[in-house]
Amino acid sequence: MNKHLIKRELIDKPLNEIKPYDRNPRKNDKAVEPLAQSIRANGFNAPIIIDENGVILAGHTRHKAAKRLGLKSAPCIVIYGLSENQKKAYRIADNKINELAKWDFSELDSELADIDWAALEAEAEDIDWGELADGDIAWPDMSWDMKALGFTEHEAAGMQMDAEVGAMLDRFEFTSPVREREQQREDEANAEPEDDDGPAEESVDTDSVIFTAKGKYQDFGEDFWKLAGELYARGIKTDMKWGKK
Questions:
Q1: Which structural domain, as residue segments, surrounds residue 238?
Q2: Are 243 and 152 in a shared domain?
Q3: What is the pLDDT of residues 58-78, one digit of tens each?
Q4: Is there a contact between 49 and 57 (Cβ–Cβ < 8 Å)?
Q5: How much of the chain is in helix, strand and coil states, percent to nearest 5?
Q6: For 89-117, what is the mean pLDDT?
C-alpha cells in the first residue's frame, strides 16, 4: 500500500471562495453571534480548515461569524491529501470531541472575574485587521460582556457578582440544578451497569439556584433577604433554605 503525504498551508482566503459543506450535520446558528463578538474583541486567531477545493472541513461557525462581521477574507488552513472518507470522519470528530470537555467552575469563575471588559473594548479598537477587512469597516454592534464568550444571560448574571454579594454568598452553600443535572448525566454515562433496584429518584425540575444557609435564621439577620434581592435583580431564580445540612 502506497503512503501519501498530507500537506497543510496557511493562507488568507476571500470569504466568497470558501465553500460550506452542504451536508454539515452541526446546527450552529446560536453560536455565530458570540463567536463574532469574540473575533471582534480578540482577532481571528483560529483559522477555518478547508480542503484543496475550498470546502470547509472545520469552521462553519467561524465562516458565518466572519460574514456577520463584514470581513472580506478569513485565515484558512488548507489541507491537501485527505480522502473523502477521512474528510467526513474529520468533520464529525471535530464537532463531537468538543462535547467531551467539561468546565472546572471554580477556575472558570476566577478567570471571568479577572477580565476587564472596558479594557477589552479598548484593546479591540487597536487590532490591525490588515487585508481581512476593507479599511475602516463598519462593525456591527457588539456586547462587551460575558455573552461575548458564549454564556447565556442567565449564566452571565450568575457569575457577575460584586464583592458585597460575593461576601454574602460565602455564608451559604449553594447548588445549581442545571450543573447538577449535567454532572448526573456524565456520571450515568460513565457508570458501570447495575442491577435494577426500581425506578430512579427524580431530580427537581427547576433551573433555580438552591441556597442553604450555613447556620440558623438568627445568625443571618437581613443578609438572607438582601442576598435574595441582589440575586433577583441579576435575573437569578433562587430557592432559599434554612438550617445546617
A1: 145-189+204-245
A2: yes
A3: 999 999 999 999 999 999 999
A4: yes
A5: 45, 15, 40
A6: 83
